[in-house]
């Protein structure tokens, strides 16, 4: 009987947008989960946002929202990024749920009842300016081990050493920068030294049976060798789980005690049968995918908490822990905004399976790996397109062209298929151990065998000189391609689905490897991918160089109007300047949905006459119901610089009228134009349309050219705005403002 497989990837912290380095873990777990499902294992893959702690509490304070509101917004951002990357979670949840509170408190009570929780009075850093005890990560200073000057109070990101804030040299408050003082306070500690015998007995068995990654074994052994210490599990905060103990009413659990338990509660939020997964070690194997900086929390602290309950738990079987993915010679950094982030990836216009391919092909399994745009281009053009895509397209296109899409009646080349079967056995063994980079590279080695067979067989000649030989080769290669399509499904599911569709074998899984018949006609074939040219890659490298702050400054400089435009504006009227700078276009609303991160926001999908649909975000929920907007024609500012509204990018703005000088923004009338089709452009009457379409305009520059309604007619500088004899009008706020 095959064991059930429970899969987790590291819970991303909620208050930042994940970069490619963070995405390594969810992508790694996704490949393994897809492989397990294809193999027929009963599989559950869970993840979610880690939402408690000081970082969330402080950022919410800075933004003037509640921690829950902040978490709601960023949870939606994470969810949408992972959805774009085609991550096949069974459930993507969060830790700020009632079930998380219950399960964490239950585990604590069991550990406490067994005598593994101790109370200690300690001196803790207190900021007199902010009037609060400082959580570990909000104290910074010099690391006593490697002298890194920006180490946090919980861990040095330079050398990876776990720290206490009082270990730091010259500590300062991470919120205000002042020097904190030591004050006495009481906290609860998990007695790791007392649990150590249980931990060592478990680890000696689990690390061997679960073939942990080498860095997981070495780092855990180093922790134990250096001597485990009692670890604080409570903090002086508000945004976290209350401690169920008398005298601790104003304290909460430390996020690193509660966060790994989130895997359990997220499962419990998916199914009330969660104990069949988490309290069933005889029948369930737990596979966890993390970065190396999280190893001790998954091999020491979380297992120690489970063992200390004295209860039966499903515990870590296989630990897949990667090294670091760096960026263009430096480190990815969420705090500094360095690297390419999940939302950036979507904006590149490069298909998701290309990104998935590269992330797996260069997965940092045994050593740090650096992402560079040049290497990205070379791997995509050379391997993904020059190897795999080349085999698929040249073989299937040849059959479409010379055999009218019908697979010729040939015999299978058993020698070639033996090579294929040998490679497939290696790939399966690698994936069983979650060695995903080597598995994917072996798939590409298999594709290379197919390409060489095609080249050596010269079907363009033998088609006429030796038709039987050509038919045998093409038939064999089609079944090789079928197997490759199945093998790449965990890595590039969209591409796999497309190839299997061309072969008429949609839905084939691992059991269908080695297929020898059942493919008849080849469907319509197209190029799988387009090559990345030098100009595109260099533009992307430049765009995403430096920090996000530096990128914003570059965009501002690029948006500054040229001097000659300034001279032109001095000699033209406001209406003509508007006509030269702004594109007003009719668009039909084809979709309306509520923004998950904003109560007042709609996400509108529009048909503006272009080939691709357009998305805008608009704060008109208080004024219009969904059904009042659906399928209506509106007017948009089509060349407004895109803006990000709580994780959703808006490509334009709709026009609406309001009362004059309505500073409270409590009035709104969307300008509907039922008589004009999508794509129609408005212009102030008496003005000339520009010879060259205007580029993007920033919002502040647009509002420098105000429009008004005068007796219901929309005007700018006294001139009506019209198109094809139709004047733009308002019917409610007939003498007001338009924006």
Helix percentage: 40-55%
Our count of helices gives 24
Strand content: 15-25%
Give the overall shape, derived from the CA principal axes: flat
Mean pLDDT: 90
CA-CA gap between termini: 66 Å
- Which segments are poorly predicted (pLDDT under 50) over 5 or more consecutive residues? 558-570
Largest sheet: 13 strands, antiparallel
The Rg value, from CA coordinates, equals 30 Å
* Helical/strand content category: alpha+beta
Q: How many beta-strand runs?
A: 32
How would you describe this protein?
- By secondary structure, this protein is α+β, with helices and mostly antiparallel strands.
- 40% of the residues lie in helices and 19% in strands.
- Strands 18, 19, 20, 21, 24, 25, 26, 27, 28, 29, 30, 31 and 32 form a 13-stranded antiparallel sheet that branches.
- Helix 2 packs across helix 3.
- It is flat, with a radius of gyration of 30 Å.
- The model is unreliable at 558-570 (pLDDT under 50).
SSE blueprint and pairings:
Layout: E1 4-9, H1 20-39, E2 43-49, H2 54-63, H3 67-84, E3 91-94, H4 98-113, E4 117-127, E5 132-133, E6 139-142, E7 151-152, E8 169-173, E9 181-190, H5 192-209, H6 214-225, E10 231-232, E11 234-235, E12 252-253, H7 255-258, H8 262-270, H9 275-278, E13 284-291, H10 295-308, E14 316-322, E15 325-327, E16 330-331, H11 342-347, H12 352-361, E17 369-371, H13 373-402, H14 414-432, H15 436-457, H16 459-465, H17 467-487, H18 493-502, H19 534-543, H20 548-559, H21 563-570, H22 574-581, E18 584-594, E19 602-607, E20 614-618, H23 626-629, E21 633-637, E22 643-645, E23 648-650, E24 653-654, E25 656-659, E26 669-670, E27 681-684, H24 699-703, E28 707-710, E29 713-716, E30 719-723, E31 726-727, E32 736-738
Parallel strand pairs: 1-2, 1-13, 2-3, 13-14, 15-17
Antiparallel strand pairs: 4-5, 4-9, 6-7, 6-8, 9-10, 11-12, 15-16, 18-19, 18-21, 18-27, 19-20, 21-24, 22-23, 25-26, 25-32, 27-30, 28-29, 28-32, 29-30, 30-31
Helix pairs in contact: 2-3, 4-8, 5-10, 6-10, 12-13, 13-15, 13-17, 14-15, 15-17, 16-17, 17-18
